[in-house]
Amino acid sequence: MRHRKKFNHLGRKTAHRKAMLANMASSLILHKRISTTTAKAKALKMYVEPLITKSKNDTTHSRRVVFSYLKQKEAVTELFREVSPKITNRNGGYTRILKTGNRLGDNAEMCIVELVDFNETYTTEKKAEAKKSTRRRRGGKSAAKAEGTEAVEAKAEEAAEAKAEEANEAAEETDKKEE
């Protein structure tokens, strides 16, 4: 029975489970996003979030504690150099689990685990949209456009006047012939 057991054992012995979670946490820190099953993702979230909280305080002791969990020097330096400065003002919730459907082979529920502050689609600040130009006769760009359109309109008017004059001359000639 699993009465009062706090975490999911994931069908593994203790040493295997700890090694797997250490490897997954290192991969998450190095790559900022990994794909795994939902059960492993929830276990990973419980494993890695206290480590990220420890990385806010950059001391030798906190580095050694984090290294005892991760067991990879590159992951520890990445965590303290790049991840912790981005999460200093966040009070928890450093990871996000996005469900992606079921795996084809065994129908296991799959998901993507990512660090929240490193996803460009959610974290990029919305850039100020270019203001739409209003149709006015004065001002910067619209004035330049208006000058260009005035020249085109003037040519069109001249062409229309020339056609009108030709039509008047033709009408006068027909009147003279009739007389």
TrEMBL record:
The keyword Ribonucleoprotein applies. Residues 126-179 are annotated as: Disordered. Keywords: Ribonucleoprotein, Ribosomal protein. Residues 152-166 have a biased composition (Basic and acidic residues). It holds the Pfam family Ribosomal_L17. Residues 141-151 have a biased composition (Low complexity). GO terms for cellular component: ribosome. Belongs to the bacterial ribosomal protein bL17 family. PANTHER family: LARGE RIBOSOMAL SUBUNIT PROTEIN BL17M (PTHR14413:SF16), RIBOSOMAL PROTEIN L17 (PTHR14413). NCBIfam families: L17. Part of the 50S ribosomal subunit. Contacts protein L32. This is Large ribosomal subunit protein bL17. It comes from Marinifilum caeruleilacunae.
